[in-house]
Design goal:
Radius of gyration: 14 Å
Number of strands: 11
Shape: globular
Oligomer: single chain
Length: 131
């Protein structure tokens, strides 16, 4: 059973930076896309960024483009989300999700509005952007 554990959240002032990590364990497949989603208080889950198995394809929500960077280190079974120039509207619980793909899906990353494609989720890490 694939398990994901997020870390790195916290309280940061507007304009600050945080780096989130998502560690995967129980991996038995070689091809899986990973994405970050977030949920603000009183709102639904929103796709933030996704990355393919090979790391050659990524996608970003318009609201975070040019501020957030997703990456992964398959040797460490870890994905990252570097968040810069944080804004109060970035506040929320950040979750990482993983979807197992076949060998032909190494460069695939599902659209961010397809959260239902992701089969495995972490417990989330809270990010609060406030002065």
């Amino acid at each position: 059973q694939l398990q994901l554990v997020e870390s790195g959240g916290g309280l940061v002032q507007p304009g600050g930076s945080l780096k989130l990590s998502c560690v995967l364990s129980g991996i038995t497949e070689n091809y899986y896309s990973i994405a970050w989603f977030r949920q603000a208080p009183g709102k639904g889950r929103e796709g933030v960024s996704g990355i393919s198995t090979y790391g050659d394809n990524t996608n970003y929500a318009d609201s975070v483009k040019d501020r957030f960077t997703i990456s992964r280190d398959n040797t460490k079974n870890t994905a990252y989300l570097q968040m810069n120039s944080l804004k109060p509207e970035d506040t929320g619980v950040y979750y990482c999700g993983a979807v197992i793909l076949g060998p032909g899906g190494g460069s695939r990353v599902p659209p961010l509005n397809m959260a239902e494609e992701y089969d495995y989720w972490g417990q989330g890490t809270l990010v609060v952007v406030s002065s």
